[in-house]
Design brief:
By secondary structure, this protein is of the alpha/beta class. It contains ten helices and seven strands. It has a single domain, classed as Alpha/Beta hydrolase fold, catalytic domain (Rossmann fold), CATH 3.40.50.1820. The protein has a seven-stranded mixed β-sheet with strand order 1-3-2-4-5-6-7, sandwiched between helices. α8 links the parallel β6 and β7. It is globular, with a radius of gyration of 17 Å. The mean pLDDT is 97.
Amino acid sequence: MSVQQRNNVHCHGDGEHTMMFVHGYGCDQSMWRFIHPAYSRRYKIVLLDLTGSGGSDLSAYDRDKYADLHGHAQDILEIIELYAKGKVIFVGHSVSAMIGLLASIQRPERFAAQVMIGPSPSFINDGDYVGGFNAEDVDQLLKMIDENYLDWSRQMVPAIMGAPNQPHLTRELLTRFERNDQDIARHFARVTFTADHRADLARSTIPSLVLQCSDDLLAPREVGIYLREHLPNSVVKMVSNVGHCPHLSAPEDSSAYIDAFLSRNGY
């Protein structure tokens, strides 16, 4: 099996450097369609689906390899070796922001910068750390996913997407969730919602832009404050948006912040 088949890799545009866009839980590469085309005039664009998601080869989903986010980070590095030109600007949504972080720590020389959209190093509250959910909340969430993934999706997707004035986006995201392999989705949910990469933040060496939404169930404002204080060479910007997917529901504002960040860093 090729890497292209495994991760449904598609490339567009040309340029001295590469922008790689990687989606969050339950999604696929189509989620970037409002943002990535504008960058194809300046960069080589690499789009992909995480193994087990979207149009990836589901037979490649190994529960041991993907028992934590490091397995996905290894896939990202393999894709970079095969498809990237120059330095990589990694744009990751939600859980993929942490996947990109892990990849950049392992091979910092391949990365120019990272853009984290709705990131969370840990979803679980811990002492003074506010991740948004108590441990009991996450246990209940995972129990709901295990018992009836489709019902959970129908309840959660409206809150995840937000965008109350754009109901078509909620319908689209729900369709994406419903198409997922349910066994893989259950496994990846457990990996996603129990991951804790707070200790890895200090190991980051590349410039980082954190895009946080003003009203986000999954990544409250306290997470942005934590990242600003613990992620070296980072800047946090607030997108006025309800929901967890500003690249879909507020693409112009998201792109404006990305453009300014890239300009400041010489890209």
